[in-house]
Design goal:
With 623 residues, the protein is an alpha/beta fold. The chain folds into six domains: 88 residues, Response regulator (Rossmann fold), CATH 3.40.50.2300; 88 residues, 3-Layer(aba) Sandwich (Rossmann fold); 81 residues, Beta-Lactamase (2-Layer Sandwich); 171 residues, P-loop containing nucleotide triphosphate hydrolases (Rossmann fold, 3-Layer(aba) Sandwich); 79 residues, Helicase, Ruva Protein, domain 3 (Orthogonal Bundle); 37 residues.
């Protein structure tokens, strides 16, 4: 259906419109109807999608008064139309009565001296005034009358001289051009309105707009979901009927926004903003935006993980832990029970027993398995650096800080697990700050005074006797008891010899694809492995198998090969002697690198963690 329609009052104008629009405005629908009949025709057009109707005189006025949701463009009565009509009416005499609706009469008097006629005006309010005004004109002694179609019909009924004011082609074209402009403007406005409504309807926030009389003018679907109120039914109601505790009076009275207020509606906590709508200095309404606090927290967690996800995931599960003996099975059962709680866990075990494997498995078995698993070795970093890694910092917090600041690992681990390995090596000052995080569930970045809530489960691990360290005042007693809520002890490999064979076979299979051949252990070789004490536990066993695979070319590994490898391995782990001038060498290197531990370790040919341990052992401090 066309967006624009032309409504002609009679057959003559109908035909004229068809002629004028042909080839120029073929998209305009042409219909016919006068006054009340024209209203019925217009109603049918509107129901079919017409937005703009072109018509004239009383028909235009009748359509406007009918309440139809349509724009009416009147065909203008031009000076040429009046002149042509008056020239015909002068044939009856110079006294001419004008019986027409006001828009046709306006300004016509100024043409009287120019055209040499005497105009007498008889305005119409509606079509029912026409007969009385026509008769009155002739009673007043006019020679003829001019007017619209209804005037012409009544005059001819009484056989009185009347000349119809006909709209010329120029007036019809002018009206059509105006209608086209209006239709185009409406299309643009509807596009903007639909875009604006789509934004509001699909926003994450509930949005309600209220006018200065506190009546609801807009209510989006999210507002409907949170409040439980029908959005369509809410429009037009007073906001106090829907949300009594909202209290918009102060905003409308002062024009000042109310931002970040926590309110409750429909048993849901929401973060609410009230923004005054000010036009020409006057408050004409308020826009209220609000969002479920739980959704904000969930989105915050997703954003943290998305921005800072750099492999903070747990790859091991309990099914990955190879075991045969009762000792390990019992440890796994205890770990599963611990995983289902939200308490802190302290994992105790010698080096190489698989403490992080258990930590990852407990994370994946817990309700936090969708969250991040963040691991950090507390022995690998100096105190200040460890503090900045754990808690983050704001830009400019210290000399070498990133100017944009940095998120701490506790924030990264939000709604997940943080694994603090070698917790016994943590600096005493950092232990106090860690205790505060455990107690308050909040972190404060270095250089900031703002606290950030975090929901993190802590798993700590150590191969040291923490209780003895507490007695020696090297570890905080309050932190120890905070961490030691649930304690998981992992037995050393020498205490579960039944697992050695299965672990060995597992490591052999793991490397079979790399060396493109299968190697197996002889019974005598397995016996040697079982009898060995394994101070390095599973890690040492894995390293031994890798070494055997690398040098052994036979399909079966015998006892002599294992003994030889074990002898070599024991030589490798002999205590490293410290040269008498090593301390001085380390100091000079740190001065050379301006305290940059990574660069110093590279120059000295050792790992960063080895350098850090030597610094502690030698008592070297660099500032």
């Amino acid at each position: 259906m066309s967006r624009i329609a032309f409504l002609a009052p009679d057959d003559n104008m109908f035909e004229k419109a068809r002629e004028v629009f042909h080839g120029v405005h073929d998209d305009i629908l042409i219909g016919k109807g006068l006054l009340s009949q024209g209203v019925n025709v217009a109603a049918s057009m509107v129901s079919s999608g017409t937005e703009v109707i072109i018509t004239r005189g009383g028909t235009a006025q009748a359509i406007r008064e009918s309440g139809l949701e349509v724009i009416v463009v009147e065909i203008p009565v031009t000076g040429f139309d009046i002149i042509r009509t008056v020239e015909k009416a002068k044939l009856y005499g110079s006294r001419i009565g004008v019986v027409a609706f006001p828009y046709m009469i306006s300004g016509i008097e100024c043409l009287a001296p120019i055209l040499g006629v005497d105009f007498r005006l008889y305005p119409l309010r509606n079509e029912y005034d026409t007969e009385s005004q026509v008769l009155r004109a002739f009673q007043d002694g006019v020679d003829s009358i001019i007017g619209g179609v209804i005037t012409d019909v009544v005059a001819h009924r009484y056989n009185r001289p009347c000349v119809l004011v006909e709209s010329g082609a120029e007036g019809i074209l002018q009206a059509a051009q105006e209608a086209e402009r209006i239709a185009y403007a409406r299309k643009l406005e509807q596009t903007k309105t639909n875009l604006f409504r789509a934004v509001l309807d699909y926003a994450y926030e509930g949005i309600i707009s209220v006018d200065s009389e506190f009546s609801v003018t807009f209510f989006n679907p999210v507002a409907q979901r949170i409040t439980g109120v029908d959005g369509v039914g809410a429009v037009g109601k007073r906001i106090s009927e829907i949300w009594p505790d909202l209290n918009l009076e102060q905003v409308i009275l002062t024009g000042k926004d109310d931002i970040g207020q926590i309110l409750k509606i429909n048993e849901i906590d929401v973060l609410c903003n009230k923004i005054a709508i000010v036009v020409n200095g006057n408050v004409v309404g308020v826009v209220v935006t609000f969002q479920d606090v739980n959704q904000i927290q969930q989105m915050d967690a997703r954003v943290r993980r998305r921005i800072y996800d750099s492999g903070h995931t747990a790859s091991f599960c309990f099914s990955d832990i190879e075991k045969t003996g009762q000792v390990m099975q019992q440890t796994i059962n205890i770990a599963k029970d611990f995983a289902l709680t939200h308490s802190s866990i302290l994992v105790l075990g010698e080096t190489g027993t698989g403490k992080e494997v258990f930590a990852q498995s407990m994370h994946n078995y817990s309700s936090r398995n969708k969250g991040p698993f963040v691991a950090i070795n507390c022995a690998a970093l100096p105190g200040q650096i460890l503090e900045s890694e754990l808690f983050g910092y704001v830009g400019g917090a210290f000399t070498s800080a990133n100017p944009k600041g940095k998120l701490g690992l506790f924030e990264v681990a939000h709604e997940g697990t943080i694994f603090l390995d070698e917790i016994a090596e943590m600096d005493y000052a950092v232990q106090g700050k860690l205790l505060r995080v455990l107690q308050e569930k909040k972190v404060m970045r270095l250089g900031s005074d703002r606290v950030i809530p975090v929901d993190v489960r802590i798993i700590a691990a150590t191969n040291k006797d923490l209780k003895q360290l507490v007695s020696d005042n090297k570890f905080r007693a309050d932190l120890y008891y905070r961490l030691n809520v649930l304690q998981l002890r992992i037995a050393p490999l020498r205490n579960r010899k039944e697992d050695i064979g299965l672990l060995s076979e597992y490591f052999l299979r793991e490397h079979a694809g790399i060396i493109k051949r299968h190697i197996k252990l002889s019974p005598s070789a397995l016996k040697v492995l079982v009898e060995y004490s394994w101070p390095g536990n599973i890690r040492e066993l894995k390293n031994l198998i890798e070494r055997v695979i690398a040098v052994h070319k036979q399909e079966t590994i015998d006892a002599d090969v294992i003994r030889l490898m074990l002898a070599d391995q024991q030589d490798d782990i002999a205590p490293v002697s410290i040269m008498h001038d090593e301390a001085e060498e380390i100091r000079k290197t740190l001065i050379l690198t301006k305290g940059k531990y990574s660069e110093a370790a590279k120059i000295l040919g050792m790992s960063r963690s080895t350098l850090w341990r030597k610094l502690r052992r030698l008592g070297i401090k660099y500032s």
